[in-house]
Amino acid sequence: MGNNIVHFEIYVDDLERAQKFYTEVLGWAFDYRKDYDYTLVYPGGKVTEGPATVGVNGGMMKRNAPAPSDDKASPNAFVCTISVDDVDATLEKVTANGGRIDVPAMEVPGVGRLAYVRDSEMNLIGLLKPDMSSMGM
Is 8-62 assigned to CATH 3.10.180.10? Predict the structure, then answer.
C-alpha cells in the first residue's frame, strides 16, 4: 500500500455557504452526519458508501481556529489542487459564488493550465486542467 492521500478536510466558518460554493463551482455532494456533527464531502458529485470510487472523499466541519489570512499570496501550505475541465470557466464560477482568484490562470509546461483561488471561506485551493498530451493522451 502506497502513501496516498485517502481523506481531506475543509474547515469553514459557514457550512451552508461553503457547501453552496463547492456544489455550484465543482458539482460536489455533501452528507451531514448528525451523530458525529460532521459533513462528508463527495467530489464525485454523488453520495456513496464505502471508499471513493474516483479520487478521494473528504469531510467538512466548522473551523475551530482563526481563518486563513485575507492576504493574496502564492501557496505557502499544503494545498489541494482539483482537476477541472476548463480553468477559465471554473474561475468565473468561483467569483460568482463568493470566492476569489489569488493567482490567475497560467500555463505550466508539461503540466497544464493552473490557477489558485480562495473558496467562500478563504481556504486556498488549486484548479488544474491537466495537459493530457504530456501524459501520452
Answer: yes
